[in-house]
Protein backbone atom coordinates (compact mmCIF):
# COMPACT_ATOMS: atom_id res chain seq x y z
CA UNK A 1 0.00 0.00 0.00
CA UNK A 2 1.39 3.39 -0.94
CA UNK A 3 -0.04 6.51 0.54
CA UNK A 4 0.87 10.15 0.24
CA UNK A 5 -0.71 10.73 3.65
CA UNK A 6 -1.89 8.37 6.39
CA UNK A 7 -5.23 6.63 5.68
CA UNK A 8 -6.87 7.96 8.85
CA UNK A 9 -6.59 11.43 7.32
CA UNK A 10 -8.99 10.66 4.46
CA UNK A 11 -11.69 12.75 6.09
CA UNK A 12 -9.31 15.71 5.79
CA UNK A 13 -9.20 15.27 2.03
CA UNK A 14 -5.73 13.75 1.93
CA UNK A 15 -4.83 11.25 -0.77
CA UNK A 16 -4.51 7.49 -0.30
CA UNK A 17 -3.29 5.22 -3.08
CA UNK A 18 -3.57 1.45 -2.70
CA UNK A 19 -1.56 -1.16 -4.62
CA UNK A 20 -2.47 -4.84 -4.34
CA UNK A 21 -2.46 -7.96 -6.51
CA UNK A 22 -5.98 -8.88 -5.40
CA UNK A 23 -8.53 -7.51 -7.86
CA UNK A 24 -11.42 -7.83 -5.37
CA UNK A 25 -9.56 -5.72 -2.80
CA UNK A 26 -8.77 -3.10 -5.41
CA UNK A 27 -12.41 -2.93 -6.51
CA UNK A 28 -13.47 -2.51 -2.88
CA UNK A 29 -11.03 0.37 -2.35
CA UNK A 30 -12.21 2.00 -5.58
CA UNK A 31 -15.84 1.75 -4.41
CA UNK A 32 -14.74 3.49 -1.20
CA UNK A 33 -13.36 6.34 -3.32
CA UNK A 34 -9.65 5.59 -3.13
CA UNK A 35 -7.17 5.50 -5.99
CA UNK A 36 -6.23 1.85 -6.37
CA UNK A 37 -3.98 -0.14 -8.70
CA UNK A 38 -3.82 -3.86 -9.39
CA UNK A 39 -0.20 -4.96 -9.42
CA UNK A 40 2.84 -6.23 -7.58
CA UNK A 41 4.18 -3.42 -5.41
CA UNK A 42 7.61 -5.09 -5.50
CA UNK A 43 7.96 -4.00 -9.14
CA UNK A 44 9.48 -0.62 -9.95
CA UNK A 45 7.06 0.23 -12.78
CA UNK A 46 4.01 -0.53 -10.60
CA UNK A 47 5.32 1.75 -7.84
CA UNK A 48 6.02 4.50 -10.37
CA UNK A 49 2.55 4.16 -11.93
CA UNK A 50 0.99 4.36 -8.46
CA UNK A 51 2.73 7.69 -7.85
CA UNK A 52 5.57 6.85 -5.50
CA UNK A 53 7.30 10.07 -6.58
CA UNK A 54 4.56 12.04 -4.73
CA UNK A 55 4.34 9.78 -1.68
CA UNK A 56 5.15 11.23 1.70
CA UNK A 57 4.37 8.01 3.57
CA UNK A 58 4.49 4.42 2.35
CA UNK A 59 2.72 1.79 4.43
CA UNK A 60 3.70 -1.82 3.76
CA UNK A 61 0.90 -3.74 5.46
CA UNK A 62 1.96 -7.15 4.18
CA UNK A 63 1.93 -10.15 6.54
CA UNK A 64 4.70 -11.92 4.58
CA UNK A 65 8.22 -10.82 5.56
CA UNK A 66 9.82 -11.99 2.29
CA UNK A 67 7.42 -9.79 0.27
CA UNK A 68 8.08 -6.87 2.61
CA UNK A 69 11.82 -7.28 2.01
CA UNK A 70 11.35 -7.33 -1.77
CA UNK A 71 9.13 -4.23 -1.62
CA UNK A 72 11.69 -2.39 0.52
CA UNK A 73 14.37 -3.24 -2.06
CA UNK A 74 12.25 -1.75 -4.86
CA UNK A 75 11.39 1.31 -2.77
CA UNK A 76 15.06 1.90 -1.93
CA UNK A 77 16.02 1.74 -5.62
CA UNK A 78 13.31 4.27 -6.49
CA UNK A 79 14.27 6.54 -3.60
CA UNK A 80 17.76 6.78 -5.07
CA UNK A 81 16.59 7.02 -8.70
CA UNK A 82 13.85 9.59 -8.10
CA UNK A 83 15.64 11.42 -5.28
CA UNK A 84 12.67 11.05 -2.93
CA UNK A 85 12.64 10.29 0.77
CA UNK A 86 9.20 9.18 1.96
CA UNK A 87 8.65 7.75 5.41
CA UNK A 88 8.34 3.97 5.02
CA UNK A 89 6.47 2.00 7.68
CA UNK A 90 6.37 -1.80 7.48
CA UNK A 91 4.09 -4.22 9.31
CA UNK A 92 6.06 -6.86 11.23
CA UNK A 93 5.27 -9.84 13.43
CA UNK A 94 7.91 -9.41 16.14
CA UNK A 95 10.96 -7.51 17.38
CA UNK A 96 13.36 -9.54 15.20
CA UNK A 97 11.48 -8.46 12.08
CA UNK A 98 11.46 -4.86 13.37
CA UNK A 99 15.26 -4.82 13.45
CA UNK A 100 15.46 -6.43 10.02
CA UNK A 101 13.00 -4.12 8.20
CA UNK A 102 14.80 -1.08 9.60
CA UNK A 103 18.08 -2.56 8.36
CA UNK A 104 16.42 -3.00 4.95
CA UNK A 105 15.41 0.67 4.81
CA UNK A 106 12.10 1.08 6.61
CA UNK A 107 11.80 4.25 8.69
CA UNK A 108 9.70 2.43 11.27
CA UNK A 109 7.92 -0.84 11.94
CA UNK A 110 4.42 -1.54 13.14
CA UNK A 111 4.04 -4.87 14.98
CA UNK A 112 0.80 -6.74 14.25
CA UNK A 113 0.13 -6.93 17.99
CA UNK A 114 0.28 -3.13 18.19
CA UNK A 115 -2.21 -2.79 15.34
CA UNK A 116 -4.66 -5.01 17.23
CA UNK A 117 -4.03 -3.19 20.51
CA UNK A 118 -4.57 0.23 18.94
CA UNK A 119 -7.80 -0.94 17.32
CA UNK A 120 -9.03 -2.41 20.59
CA UNK A 121 -8.23 0.73 22.57
CA UNK A 122 -9.87 2.98 20.01
CA UNK A 123 -13.03 0.89 20.14
CA UNK A 124 -12.99 0.26 23.91
CA UNK A 125 -15.33 3.12 24.86
CA UNK A 126 -17.73 2.11 22.11
CA UNK A 127 -17.65 -1.50 23.33
CA UNK A 128 -18.29 -0.40 26.92
CA UNK A 129 -21.35 1.52 25.72
CA UNK A 130 -22.60 -1.56 23.90
CA UNK A 131 -22.30 -3.63 27.10
CA UNK A 132 -24.23 -1.02 29.09
CA UNK A 133 -26.92 -0.91 26.41
CA UNK A 134 -27.31 -4.71 26.52
CA UNK A 135 -27.66 -4.63 30.31
CA UNK A 136 -30.29 -1.88 30.13
CA UNK A 137 -32.24 -3.77 27.46
CA UNK A 138 -32.19 -6.93 29.60
CA UNK A 139 -33.40 -4.97 32.62
CA UNK A 140 -36.22 -3.37 30.63
CA UNK A 141 -37.26 -6.79 29.28
CA UNK A 142 -37.51 -8.08 32.86
CA UNK A 143 -39.75 -5.15 33.73
CA UNK A 144 -42.04 -5.50 30.71
CA UNK A 145 -45.61 -5.24 31.85
CA UNK A 146 -44.48 -3.50 35.02
CA UNK A 147 -44.01 0.17 35.65
CA UNK A 148 -40.86 2.22 35.36
CA UNK A 149 -40.20 5.33 37.41
CA UNK A 150 -38.43 8.13 35.60
CA UNK A 151 -36.97 10.81 37.79
CA UNK A 152 -36.17 14.08 36.08
CA UNK A 153 -33.95 16.67 37.62
CA UNK A 154 -35.45 19.88 38.99
CA UNK A 155 -34.22 21.87 36.03
CA UNK A 156 -34.15 19.36 33.14
CA UNK A 157 -32.73 20.11 29.73
CA UNK A 158 -35.02 19.82 26.67
CA UNK A 159 -33.68 16.36 25.80
CA UNK A 160 -34.45 15.12 29.31
CA UNK A 161 -38.01 16.45 29.10
CA UNK A 162 -38.54 14.89 25.66
CA UNK A 163 -37.23 11.53 26.89
CA UNK A 164 -39.49 11.61 29.92
CA UNK A 165 -42.56 12.49 27.86
CA UNK A 166 -41.77 9.80 25.27
CA UNK A 167 -41.38 7.12 27.92
CA UNK A 168 -44.53 8.24 29.77
CA UNK A 169 -46.71 7.20 26.84
From TrEMBL:
<dbReference type="Pfam" id="PF02254">
    <property type="entry name" value="TrkA_N"/>
</dbReference>
<feature type="domain" description="RCK N-terminal">
    <location>
        <begin position="15"/>
        <end position="109"/>
    </location>
</feature>
<dbReference type="InterPro" id="IPR036291">
    <property type="entry name" value="NAD(P)-bd_dom_sf"/>
</dbReference>
<protein>
    <recommendedName>
        <fullName>RCK N-terminal domain-containing protein</fullName>
    </recommendedName>
</protein>
<dbReference type="InterPro" id="IPR003148">
    <property type="entry name" value="RCK_N"/>
</dbReference>
<dbReference type="GO" id="GO:0006813">
    <property type="term" value="P:potassium ion transport"/>
</dbReference>
Amino acid sequence: MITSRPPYARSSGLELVVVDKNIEKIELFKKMGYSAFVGDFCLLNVLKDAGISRAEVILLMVPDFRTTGRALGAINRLKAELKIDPVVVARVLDEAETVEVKRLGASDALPSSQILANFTLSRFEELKGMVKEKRLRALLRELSGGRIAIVLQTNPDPDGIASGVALKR
